[in-house]
Structure formats: structure tokens, C-alpha cells
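At this stage, I wrote out one protein's amino acid sequence and its C-alpha cells, and that material follows here:
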Amino acid sequence: MRRLASDSRVRRFAVLVVVALLVGATVVQRRTIVDAIGLLRGFSGSTLAILAVLGVIERVSRADVIRSLLPGTSLGRAEVIGDVGSAVTKGVPAGGPLATLLRWQIARDSGASAGPFVHMLVASGVATAFVSWGYPLVATLADISRRDASLADLLIIAGSAAVLVGSAAFWSVALFSPKAHRWTTERAEWVRSKFAGSTPGLARGDAVALVVEVRGLLRATARRPLALLLRTTIAQGTGVIILWTALRGLGVGDELGVTEFARVFFVAQILGSFAPTPGGIGVIEAGLTGALVAAGVQTDVALAGVLVYRFITYVLPILVGTGLYLWWRRTRTPPVPTVVAVVGFTAEPTSR
């Protein structure tokens, strides 16, 4: 099964299937889509201003997470690192590796070394996972404190708690167990010795030292995780407020409670993270709209709110990230060739 899931042909087929289903759904629901777009003309000026401010806060808060994990990096450069990576991840199928490479090149130009960069990638990813699974757990617990729990509530609580406890246990062992440390350093040394002949850059790098450095940085973050979790919560929570503001601006009222909305939002987001399309495009829109309709929101209103939310959090980052990448290419100073131990090759200067 794992081999089948990693086959590029299977992934391409899955993407084609999802795209075909989305196109079919768009054709069938074209009248609802047109009605939803028409509703957007009803936004007040104050709602539009609030959405614009929230959009800025959402991007800046995500950049602040990167800045806090890369010492010496300014907020502006962290914004470039984050938005360029987001543009590739959201706009290019299977663009994760390319996004990581571009982030590394921009961070390296700012003076970052491989250890802190890898620490930033891992720590921010782990914090995002904890916050993403923690939100539906907290929202559901708050919701059932005022009513009887349903089977769906119990499944959400059990699933979220299992993921959080399992993740905490895994990282506790990985970061603080001497056996795990020996295993990791032995694997790093094995990789270096195995591929040093075919990859000269890897032979010149000290893979074991990199592993030790990254592990030490992660251990320090794990001992004091509250600041990172708070920053990540703000970044994630701003997206929730954007959708909530859009729905309120479209006339959604008491039919959608705050805790129920938070639970619906993050469950749909988690399910969308497994989608084969870039940034979960199509899947997240359908999931959020369906969940909101099930919660009592009219179909066209739910879709209109989701379209606004996705424009601010999906389309704009692609546009901003593309612009920042072009600006970086024009203004960067080509670096001296640097050995990148983490990926095992020599990173040559990129021509303008």
C-alpha cells in the first residue's frame, strides 16, 4: 500500500480524479456558484476593511513564526521565506520539495545556516499539527459542555486526543531518549559513508554534527513550547476569524454557534490536508461549504463566505509570494558556494 501511494502515476491519477469530480460538481452547481458570487456585492465597507486587516495579520503572523525560529532573520525576510514557499506549495502540484529548496536559498542569503533552518521547518510543522488537532478538540469539548454529546462529538474528541497524545509521545522519545539519539546519529553517519562517493558535497559536510545541532535546537523548543504554540495559534486562528467575519458580513447569525463553527472549520481543514491537490484546492472549499450547510447555513451564503476566505488565504499568498520571489531574484546577492549538509549537495550561486 505504501509503495502504491508513493507511485507518481498513482498520485497523478488521484489528482486527475479529484479535478474531474470538482469540474463535474462545478457544472452541476453552477447556479449556486453564480448566486454565491452575486452575494459578495452585499459586503459593507467596514466588513471589507476588517477582512483586509485580517489578511495582513494572517500573513504577518505566519512570518513571525518563521522569524522566531530563525535567529537574526528580520520579519520582512521571514515574510519572503514564508510567502515564496506558500506560493509554490499552494500553486504547484507536489511542490513541497521545491518550496523547501527556495526557502533554504532565501534563508541562506540572509545568513541562516542549515541547522536552524531545519529546526525551523520541523518545529513550525509540529506546532501547526498540534494546533490544528487541538482546535477541534477544545471546540468540541466546549460545545458539549452545554449539550449532550453525539457519536460524532466522541469520535472527534477521541481522534484528536489520540493524535495529540501519540505525537507528544513520539517527539518525547525522539528528542529525549539516548537510544533514539544514538540511532539517529548512526543513521546519519551511515548515509554519509554510503553516499559520500557519489555525492562529494555530502562527504565534505558533517551530517552527524548537523543532526546533533538540530536535535539540540528542537529539545530547547520542546522544553519551552508555549511561545511557539501561541504564535502558531494566532496564525491559524486568524484564518478562522476571516471566514467568520465573511459569514457574518453575509448575514449569518445565531444559526451558527462559535464553538460549532470552530469545530466545523478545523475538521474540514484537517480532512482537506489529505487532499492530493495543491493546497487542498477544491477539496477544502467543498468540505467547508458542506460542513457549514450541515450546520444550518444556506448553501449560497456558505459558499460565498468560503470563497472569500480562500481568496484571502489561498489566492493572495500565491500572488504575493510570486511577486516577492521576483523581487528577491532581482535584488539578491549571489552567495559564495556553500555545502548544505542537510540535503547533501553543494549549493552553487544562482545567476540573476
